Amino acid sequence: MSRSWRWLIWLLPLLFIGAIFGFAWSQDHDFWRSTHSFHHAAQEAASRGDRTGALELARKAWTRAPNNFAYGIFLARLYLDAGQFKEALEISRQLMDRDPGPGALMIHAQALDRLGNPKEALDKLAWYLQRQPDDRSILANAADIAGRHEDYHPLAATYYQQLYGLDRDPQVRRQLVKLLASLDRYKEAIPLQEEEVAEFSEDQEALRLLALLHYWQRDYQVASDIYQRLLEKGAENSGLRLDAAKAADAAQDRDRALSQYLWLYARHRGQKEYDLPLARLWAQKGNHAEAAGVLAPLMQQQPDQELRRWYALELLLIGDLDKAQREYHKAWEDGDTHQETIINLARLYARKHRFTKAAGLWDEASRRQLIKGEMRWEAALTYSYARRYQDALEIIEPLRHQNSKIQNCCYFPGNFISTKSIGARRRTIFPPTWNRILGTWRSEGNWPRPYLLIPPPGIRP
After folding, report:
1. What is the pLDDT of residues 33-70, one digit of tens each?
2. What totals of helices (H) and strands (E) does the chain contain, helices first?
3. CA 216/CA 186 separation, integer angstroms
4. How many degrees, rounded to 5, is the angle at CA 96 between CA 94 and CA 97?
5. What's the DSSP call for residue 409?
6. Alpha-carbon distance 394 to 269, whole Å?
7. Which terminus of the chain has a smaller tally of CB atoms within 10 A, N or C?
8. What is the pLDDT, as a whole number, of residue 49?
9. Residues in a beta bridge with 412
10. 411: part of which helix (H) or strand (E)?
C-alpha cells in the first residue's frame, strides 16, 4: 500500500469525528455543556437581570431534562416574570399532572389570574387549602390574587386573617389593615393597628393610620386626641395639622379646631383649604367680624357666587350694611339668583329709600317663587312705599286666605294696619337683624311712623 493511501486511512476517522462535532455545533452551540450547567447559568443570568438569556438557558435545561421538576418550576417562573403567561400556564400544567404540589400550583394560579381568569385560579387554590389549610405559601398566593380584584376583597381579608393567625407577621398585618379599611371594616382594623403601634411605638405613620381609622369610624374625639400626640413630634407638619383640625372640628371641639386652623392661616394665608374652615368656625362661634376679616382677601381671587354671598352675610351680621349691599350687588350682577341675594339686596335698597329698585327685586323674587310665608308682609310694605298699592294687596292676599284673623286688614294709601292691633303691642314682621336695622332707621327719622307695617295679634314674624 502506498504512503498516500496510508495517510487517507488515518485521516478518515478524524474527518468523521469532525463531521459529527460540526453537525452537533450547528444544532446547538452549547452541546458540550451539561444540563446542570445550563440550569446554573440560567440562575446566574436571572440574578443579573438578563431575563432573555436566562429564559434561553432554562429552556435548554428543561428540554434536556423534562422530568426534572426543579428545572420546570424555574422555567415557568421565568415565563411568568417575563409576562409570557400562556407558556407559564402550559409548563405549570405539565408539572401539576406529575405532582400537584404547591410550587406548580402557585405558578398555575398566577398565570390563570394574569390571563383574566381569577375565579378558576382561586378555585384551584381553595381546593388545595381544603386539604392543607395551614399551607402558608398557598394562603399568601390566594390572598395576593384575591386582593387584586375588588370583588374578591372579602375573600382576600379572610385569607390574610388566616395567614396572620399562623405567625403574626407584621407585613401580613399591614396588608390586612389596609384591606379591612378598604372594606369599611374599621372595627376589625383598629385592634390590629393598635398592635402595630404597640410593636413599633416610634413609627409616626402607624400612629397616624390609627388616627385615620378612628376618624373613618367616626370616633372623632379619639382621633383628635391621637392627632394631638402626633403634633408633639410633628408640630411643623401642615398636612398633619390639617388632619388634626378636621378631626377636632368633627368632634365639635371648636376651640381645638380653631387653634389648629389659626396656625395654618398664619402660615398659608390666602389658601381656601385653610381659610374657609377658619371663617366657618369663627361664624359658628358668633365672631362674625373675624369671619368677615378672613373672607375679605378671598374676594380678590374671583370668588364663586356662594363665597361672595357668604361674605356679604357676614358683613350684614356685623352691621356693615353698605359693604354688604355692595357685595350682594356684585353677586347679583354676576348672575347670582339665590333667594338670599335677591331678598337681602331688596331690603338693603329699601333701607336707602330706593323703593323702586327694591320693589323690582321683590318682583324678581316673586317671579322665581322665592317669597314664602310672612315674607309677603315685607314685600307688601316695600310695594307700598314704592306706591304700587295693587301689587302690595296681591302679594299679601295668600296670607289673608290662610288666616281669618287677617280679614280685618284695612288698606290706606301707603300704609297697612290692622284695626284690631292699633292699641295692642306692636311687632314688626322682620327677623331680629332687620328689626335692628329698621329700629336704627326709625331712630334717625328715616322711616315715618305712619308707614310701619304692624301685623295683627297672633301673627309672629
Report:
1. 567 777 778 788 888 888 888 888 888 887 777 888 88
2. 24, 2
3. 7
4. 65
5. E
6. 50
7. N
8. 84
9. 415
10. strand 409-412
| Residue among 406, 359, 366 at smallest CA distance from 384 | 359
Size of the chain, expressed as the number of residues it contains: 461
Pairing of strands 409-412, 415-418: antiparallel
Measured distance CA(235)–CA(238) in Å, rounded? 8
Output DSSP code: residue 449: G
Q: How many CB atoms lie within 10 A of CB 204?
A: 16
Angle at 148 between CA 144 and CA 149, to 5 degrees: 130
Confidence bin at 448 (pLDDT 50/70/90): very low
Lowest-confidence segment of 39-53, 115-129, 250-264, 345-359 by average pLDDT: 39-53
Q: Which three cell numbers stand for residue 373?
A: 310665608
What is the three-class DSSP state of 371? coil
> DSSP letter at 303?
-
pTM, two decimals, is 0.74
Cα distances (angstroms) measured from residue 414 to each of 204, 240, 288, 410, 452: 72, 62, 36, 11, 10
Q: In 3-state terms, what secondary structure has residue 454?
A: strand
Other beta carbons within 10 Å of 333: 8
Please name the amino acid found at residue 152.
Y
Report d(CA 443, CA 440) in Å as an integer.
Answer: 5
Please answer whether residues 380 and 386 qualify as being in contact, where contact means their C-beta atoms are separated by less than 8 angstroms: no
pLDDT > 70 fraction of the chain, expressed in percent and rounded = 79
